[in-house]
Design a protein that fits this description.
Elements: H1 2-12, E1 19-24, H2 31-39, E2 44-48, H3 54-69, H4 82-87, E3 96-101, H5 104-109, H6 113-123, E4 130-136, H7 139-147, E5 159-162, H8 168-175, H9 180-190, H10 194-199, H11 207-216, H12 225-233, H13 237-242, H14 247-255, E6 259-262, E7 277-280, H15 283-291, H16 296-300, H17 304-334, E8 342-347, E9 352-359, E10 364-371, H18 379-389, E11 393-394, E12 397-398, E13 403-410, H19 416-424, E14 428-432
Parallel strand pairs: 1-4, 1-5, 2-3, 3-4, 10-13, 13-14
Antiparallel strand pairs: 6-7, 8-9, 9-10, 11-12
Length: 437
């Protein structure tokens, strides 16, 4: 989030030049909050487009412009043209920011909107000290409207930002929990989507009571969130629900940060690899499809306790443990002293390794395991990891030319024997929950 703020600022302060920024991303990720933080204390006109007819959006936008510049003459005269409304904007000494939020709604009622805004940019705004920000939630539509080669707006932008959910270390700043296990549990449910974090009450409730109140009960904000998201973001949402993994729909779901395609990290051509597997990437949607969608008929008749019992039976082993592995990979990517440009998981037909990190330039390779269970990890697990690591080939070759390191993450710590062994072997790194900060 901080990086995106800095990116927008960099274009704003290039005062000699007008700038045109496309900001987009799935619903709830904080686009509007980012914009409002950016325009605070700046000359700015913020307009939120709606699903009303084009004439109403035009009227409302004109009201914003005439009110900001105090153009009394045009407060009662409706211009009925986007170009004429933009022509009302006078020259300003300080750069003016114009934001059109939910831009895609304008295109719903007028397919010519990209062409209209191309003309507005080329003939009006491009000659003024202005920053134009077009923001939208429908990812595929925003890309087609503003970024695709076939769009009239192609090549006009000076910056584009696709806002993604926060990573664990950004998200936990919002959780504000001193107990890092709580941070991990929260991330496993809400992921890095700011609105989900905001709406999930974990401060006044224990974990499963919070799940019951915020997700399972009819009428709660998150009860129908997955359906709402897919209904708004993609067409034919029923099809997406019933055949979530059919190839025809995967590209759209990946753009929405809902699915991700994962291949063994050692694959030389990941895009062409036949070993790709698809996983639900968003933690909340992953939770929802595991524990809400299959039991929707029970929840509709308010059998919440029954569903909650099913969740309790599988929650840690079948859900939190997978989110924990992702957090550990993020830790190595952002917090580890070694730079590991490539980090992911590895598998073949017989074995799997939770974490493999590779730095091909410095010839460093790291292998790791992550366990979110109630038993300290034994030294035996390390030796099993070491044996599995011998099977990993990098660029088709054995990894003996690499400096090998091992990283193990454990919720419940490590055996004394393991700790002593790691002290004697400097290429072994042991991390508990308190270290993942």
């Amino acid at each position: 989030m901080k990086l995106h703020i800095e990116t927008i600022y960099s274009f704003y302060f290039m005062a000699k030049y007008p700038s045109f920024v496309i900001l987009y991303g799935r619903r709830r990720v904080g686009k509007t909050s980012l914009i409002k933080e950016f325009i605070k204390n700046k000359p700015a006109v913020y307009f939120l487009a709606t699903e009303e007819i084009e004439e109403e959006n035009m009227k409302n936008f004109q009201r914003e412009i005439t009110a900001y510049f105090n153009l009394e003459l045009f407060k009662e005269v409706f211009l009925k043209s986007w170009e004429k409304i933009f022509q009302l904007i006078p020259e300003t000494k300080e750069k003016l920011v114009i934001v059109i939020d939910e831009f895609q709604y304008l295109a719903f009622t007028n397919k010519a909107i990209p062409s209209i805004f191309q003309k507005i940019w080329d003939e009006i705004l491009n000659k003024k000290n202005i920053m134009l920000i077009l923001c939208g939630s429908y990812v595929s539509m925003m890309e087609n409207l503003t970024l695709s080669y076939s769009s009239p707006l192609f090549g006009r932008r000076t910056a584009q930002i696709k806002l993604s959910p926060l990573n664990f270390f950004e998200a936990k700043l919002l959780y504000n929990e001193e107990d890092n296990e709580k941070n991990i549990l929260l991330y496993s449910i809400t992921g890095g989507v700011p609105k989900y974090i905001e709406m999930f009450d974990f401060k006044n409730l224990d974990l499963f009571s919070a799940i019951s109140e915020n997700v399972l009960k009819k009428g709660s904000f998150l009860y129908e969130e997955a359906e709402f998201l897919l209904e708004k973001e993609v067409e034919k949402n029923i099809t997406y629900f019933s055949i979530l993994n059919i190839t025809k729909y995967l590209d759209t779901l990946q753009k929405l940060d809902i699915l991700e395609r994962v291949v063994p990290i050692t694959e030389e051509n990941p895009e062409k690899s036949k070993k790709g597997l698809y996983f639900i990437k968003d933690n909340f949607l992953n939770f929802w499809f595991k524990f809400v969608f299959p039991y929707k008929s029970y929840l509709e008749i308010e059998k919440v306790d029954y569903v909650l019992k099913k969740i309790q039976e599988r929650f840690f082993e079948n859900h939190v443990s997978f989110a924990f592995k992702d957090i550990c990979r993020q830790f190595l990517l952002f917090k580890f002293p070694f730079i590991l440009p490539k980090i992911g998981k590895w598998w073949d037909s017989d074995e799997e390794i939770d974490i493999v990190g590779i730095n091909p330039e410095e010839k460093i390779c790291l292998f790791g395991e992550c366990k979110f269970n109630n038993n300290p990890l034994s030294l035996e697990l390390f030796f099993k990891l070491k044996e599995k690591a011998k099977k990993v080939k990098i660029n088709g070759k054995n990894n003996e030319n690499y400096k090998i390191h091992y990283s193990l993450f454990s919720k419940s710590g490590f055996s004394k024997e393991f700790i002593e062994y790691a002290k004697e072997n400097k290429n072994i790194y042991l991390f508990t929950l308190e270290d993942i900060k």
